[in-house]
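Translate structure to sequence.
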């Protein structure tokens, strides 16, 4: 069976989630890494160098371009492996193996940096070093994705129950710049864990005292620990406080929310990919799936032009008379 039409269909941006030009860049970037990983696995399986010339033996039913396509379509729409296998007229295990091979390559790419072609951030250390060197104020926010519930009577079953959503979830933390472009997304943890207890973030603020960030109420602990670096919403005054204090609190809260809302839009970009709306796979593969999708989203957001810096200052409609 010819696979020309399945390849043409899966390469459409509506199915793959990336433009064809972007797909070409991914193909050029990942093909050598996949080939090297495959040769290493074959060498280990054989226990030595190959004994036949390259190209000998049975041919692959899915070449790398199709393996990359089925992985992107699965990540974008959550189409089952069996449906993709029927499309390419191969066994389901072939598609499952292809996704297991390509998904780690996507997750290991790192996050694209706006206006810095070729530079990619792979760890929290990279992110905070970049923010400190470039003077970028971070926007931090957490997001939750519903996952499959662990079996009954298993230890740690309640660790995934979110107190906010009352569902079995996994949390991740997203970091963006003031334009809402993804810089890093990860720090995966069970849904029961509070945002401010995410591992590694407080240590990075200690190491990089010049880095500043804007957060929501969920990171109040970070704001209390690093008052000169982390900006959280102002605390509400008491009910018997003067009316002027309440008006000032509302205005300060509005300005802080206006500066932070862009990271909410960043999280909304992830939710356009079906597995991050509700993850139905094994929980052990969620972190890798999230990273694979987030790196693809960062490629697109890094290409967005820098918008004019929005102002949250009040503008008087008319000049008040003294």
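Result:
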């Amino acid at each position: 069976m010819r696979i020309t039409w399945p390849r043409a269909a899966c390469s459409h941006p509506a199915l793959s989630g990336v433009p064809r030009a972007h797909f070409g860049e991914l193909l050029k970037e990942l093909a050598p890494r996949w080939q090297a990983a495959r040769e290493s696995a074959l060498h280990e399986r054989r226990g030595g160098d190959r004994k036949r010339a390259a190209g000998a033996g049975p041919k692959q039913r899915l070449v790398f371009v199709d393996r990359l396509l089925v992985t992107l379509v699965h990540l974008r729409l959550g189409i089952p492996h069996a449906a993709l296998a029927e499309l390419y007229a191969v066994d389901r295990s072939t598609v499952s193996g292809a996704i297991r091979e390509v998904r780690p390559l996507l997750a290991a790419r790192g996050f694209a940096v706006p206006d810095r072609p070729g530079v990619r951030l792979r760890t929290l250390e990279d992110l905070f070093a970049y923010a400190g060197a470039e003077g970028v104020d971070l926007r931090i926010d957490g997001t939750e994705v519903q996952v499959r519930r662990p079996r009954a009577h298993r230890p740690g079953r309640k660790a995934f129950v979110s107190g906010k959503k009352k569902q079995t979830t996994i949390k991740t933390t997203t970091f963006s710049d003031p334009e809402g472009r993804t810089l890093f997304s990860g720090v995966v943890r069970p849904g029961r864990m509070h945002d401010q207890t995410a591992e590694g973030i407080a240590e990075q603020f200690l190491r990089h005292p010049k880095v500043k960030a804007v957060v929501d109420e969920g990171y109040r602990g970070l704001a209390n620990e690093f008052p000169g670096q982390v900006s959280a919403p102002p605390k509400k005054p008491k009910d018997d406080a003067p009316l002027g204090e309440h008006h000032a609190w509302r205005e300060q809260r509005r300005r802080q929310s206006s500066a932070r809302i862009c990271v909410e839009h960043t999280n909304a970009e992830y939710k356009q990919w079906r597995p991050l709306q509700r993850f139905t796979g094994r929980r052990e593969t969620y972190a890798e799936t999230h990273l694979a999708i987030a790196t693809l989203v960062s490629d697109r957001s890094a290409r967005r032009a820098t918008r004019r810096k929005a102002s949250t200052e009040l503008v008087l409609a008319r000049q008040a008379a003294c």
